Amino acid sequence: MRTALLEVEGLVKHFPVKGGAFGGVSAYVRAVDGLDFEVKEGETLALVGESGCGKSTVGRLVLRLIEPDAGTVRFEGDDLLALDAEQMRARRRRLQVIFQDPYASLNPRMTIGAMLGEPLFLHRLANDVGARRTRVGELLELVGLRPEHARRYPHEFSGGQRQRLAIARALAVEPKLIVADEPVSALDVSIQAQVINLMKSLQQRFGLAYIFISHDLAVVKHIADRIAVMYLGKIVETATTDELFRSPRHPYTRALLSAVPLPDPAAVRERALLEGDIPSAIAPPPGCRFHTRCRFAKESCRRDVPALADDGAGHATACPWWPEFPPAPMTVGAAARAEDKTRLDRLQAAFVKQEAT
Ligand SMILES: Nc1ncnc2c1ncn2[C@@H]1O[C@H](COP(=O)(O)OP(=O)(O)OP(=O)(O)O)[C@@H](O)[C@H]1O
Ligand code: SF4
Ligand SMILES: [Mg+2]
Fold first, then answer.
1. What is the bridge-based pairing of β-strands 209-214 and 44-48?
2. In whole angstroms, what is the distance from residue 357 CA to residue 355 CA?
3. What is the Å distance from ligand 2's center to 298 Cα?
4. Ligand 1 atom closest to Cα of 215?
5. Hey, whose CA ends up nearest to atom 1 of ligand 2?
6. Distance of CA 2 to the CA centre of its chain
7. Is 53 in the pocket of ligand 1 (CB under 6 A)?
8. Which domains are assigned to the chain?
9. How do residues 5-57 score in pLDDT, each as one tens digit?
């Protein structure tokens, strides 16, 4: 059995909102509101949910780019929040990040060689110029680029290549865990498949673990071992990817999945579309936070906060009523939207093509 690399317990982050007559704190955005999860060595945990549910905040908290208000983050057995700045710097080598927009995170005035050489120098991973040059060439080859690309600048690369460069930079310091925040969301679907396949092969080769943040379940399906579904700062369901797609339990997960088109044209999933906007994280609804949009809501859901209860087999659901619901039908309802279908076809065709090569 794989051991836990990262263990997160009771994680809370409330951002103050300035306002009022004297510019004081008028309210708090409850971005992350009591999260427990773990990531095992070499596995991919996906965090999914609508915009604003707190996914990126979780990523930033795990990396300790921001400090939580409560909770613990243990990485390789160490309590990260107890480390001082110097100890954290050493730890950060093992914990890397990739963002959605690689261009914003690549220095436009630095050559690729200088950019990849910098972390090698800072972490004393290659001591002289020759060793650094060799290692930079290796890193470029690892991500499917060529050693001579080291002389170029970020603007000379395409979007997909820039994401490869961001991956190479993360790999330079030999991490154990990479937080990837919407790493392929800005890319065309065929390029998405290439980058995901690259991430998967690097994972196998180096035993990397990923926290893969995405709003796109069709992409997540291809990379995640497990999925945690977030709603308004809380996890509402976690399960292995296969299990979650096969038998989603929480009404929110069912609604999210209903928007993912099915590859088989004969099979059409129920379209339990989400009604209304996600409520404000400043004043989330009492009781079950999802009750304002839940088609199964009962009176008590406005009052009682559901616990995230594990069924003993690793599938946890924050809704005590799920056993009463009809199974999520996969073959009723209206036809999947044509544009979703086309997009999925392209994505899947791209994956099949990549896997064959
Ligand atoms: N520095 C900040 N100050 C105040 N509020 C913040 C800050 N960072 C995030 N928030 C708020 O916290 C909530 C969660 O934001 P977060 O960026 O984590 O969501 P997300 O799930 O990553 O969304 P998206 O899919 O759009 O990237 C949002 O309501 C956001 O406005
Ligand atoms: S607890 Fe109630 S409102 Fe929340 S998801 Fe379950 S049925 Fe819906
Ligand atoms: Mg985000």
1. parallel
2. 5
3. 7
4. 25
5. 319
6. 20
7. yes
8. 4-94+174-356 (3.40.50.300), 96-173 (no CATH)
9. 999 999 999 999 987 777 788 899 999 999 999 999 999 999 999 999 999 99
